[in-house]
Amino acid sequence: MTVDTLITGGQLVQPEGILETSIAIDGEEIAAVGSESDLPEADEVVDASGKLVLPGAVDVHVHLDDHFSNDTYETASKAAVLGGTTTIVDFAWQAWVGDVSLFDEESTLLEGVDRKQAKAENALVDYSLHGAITREDSAVFEELPELVDRGVTSIKMFTAYEFGLSNGFINEVLQHAADHDLVAVFHTEDSSICEVITEQFKREDKGDPEYYPKSRPDLAEAMAADSAIRMAMAADCRYYGIHTTSRKAAEVIDAHRRDNHDMIRAETCTQYTVADDSLFEDVGLLPMAAPPLRKPDDNDAMFEHLDRGTIDVVSTDHCGFTRDQKQVYPWWEGTFGMNSLQRSLPVFHDEAVAERGFRLPFLVRKLAANPARVFGMPEKGTLEPGTHADIVVFDPDDTSPIDPEDNASMSDFSVYEGREVGSVEKTFVRGELVADDGEIVGPPGHGEFVEREIPTWRN
């Protein structure tokens, strides 16, 4: 027997530990793991001596080709593979009509799935979707069974913006979501608090960048998270809190999770582990996102709760906007979101492992294994034989400063600019080498839609 590829000499990092061993790829799958002498011969051998062999990152929170991002699936997935991400989960929007909407008329959740799948023709990475409910229309409940049948096993709701939902409607959605074992994904900020402070700042002409994070305080995030979790637990529905940013919000999640461990999961994002609100004074509105960057103590809190298990996942909340779209003053006329897909794994490795001393399996759990497990993708996020050969060869010692000139994304800036990080040398997606030494070598369209299972959250 001959396999397609052997990766030898590297340190294989699994969620549970590190192995000094080799890995065999055949077709789209990992064929075997073991010593090189025990593995079959291969058509190609990759020498990973002195480097890390990781499962590809699974980013379950990205925005592509919609009102939150200029990035196409092709540009974003190029950024992803250059940064070691091999699976992404985007959002299928129930169309609404409003000031920030790109839609001319309303449409259904299932039409949103069709729309995004059509846009993903040139994806390099595998992708899936969360359904996103944006209107208080009970007709959406009739769509949920087919949504699950199509492998979209999570729905997102907002408590803020013009497409935010009232607690009354959210409560009703959660009861229906529980009937179908869906995961309820939440953006949690108390809309009224953020809106009142914003209007106050407008009256006082406080449009400079440093006022933006003060307009969306951590208490607003914590309050909305508490309400959403209480409703989800009353409905016996699984709850997933996205982009946790603050100690206050993490403590709310932690308190509820101690009582409802099998029903609550949460994420933070790379930027909320490494950057704080002082960045607004340095680079203007480039890092403006919602919720905003917080304080250094909140960075510390993210790691405390990642370590404790309150927070399971590190994602990006990637949005592909340009510098000109971001640097718009006053800040309330600007655009939310920042790009991170190409930098997430190297930056989080630098902060978590090199700076804070966490072990490599911690990195793999938060970036790959946990997101795959939380969202029902058993063939992703691991280096186990029989799973997809989504593999990254990463050299932590080959460091260089992040330069936005190297962005594959449509975005022409990076909030991590200048940070010295290791390099992603090779990225395989289902056995196909798609990025090699900083170059895209895989064909657009290699990525496939991942029909997700109903996840099992019990440890």
The global form is globular
Architecture (CATH level 2) name of the largest domain: Alpha-Beta Barrel
User: Average pLDDT value?
Assistant: 97
In quaternary terms, these chains amount to single chain
The CATH topology of the largest domain corresponds to TIM Barrel
Could you state the CATH homologous superfamily of the largest domain? Metal-dependent hydrolases
Percent of residues in beta strands: 15-25%
Tell me what you see in this structure.
30% of the residues lie in helices and 23% in strands. The protein folds into 2 domains: 2-54 and 384-396 and 421-440, Urease, subunit C, domain 1, CATH 2.30.40.10; 56-374, TIM Barrel. It has 459 residues and is α/β, with parallel strands linked by helices. It has an 8-stranded parallel sheet. It has a 7-stranded mixed sheet with strand order 3-2-7-16-17-18-19. Helix 4 packs across helix 6 (218-235), helix 6 (218-235) runs parallel beside helix 7 and helix 7 packs parallel to helix 10.
Keywords for this structure?
about 450 residues, alpha/beta, Urease, subunit C, domain 1, TIM Barrel, 2 domains, 8-stranded parallel beta sheet, 7-stranded mixed beta sheet
Give the topology, please.
Layout lengths: L1 E7 L2 E3 L4 E3 L1 E5 L2 E6 L6 E7 L4 E4 L1 E3 L13 H10 L2 E9 L15 H11 L6 E7 L11 H6 L4 E5 L8 H13 L3 E5 L3 H13 L14 H18 L2 E4 L5 H13 L4 E6 H5 L4 H5 L12 H13 L4 E3 L7 H4 L17 H12 L4 H15 L16 E11 L18 E10 L2 E5 L2 E2 L19
Helix pairs in contact: 4-6, 6-7, 7-10
